[in-house]
Amino acid sequence: MKPIAMAFASYSVKDLETSRKFYEEVMGFTPENIWVDEETKTGYIEYGFGPDNIFTLTIGSEREGMSAGKDGGLVSIEV
Question: Using CA atoms, how far apart are residues 41 and 30, in angstroms rounded to an integer?
Answer without folding.
Answer: 19
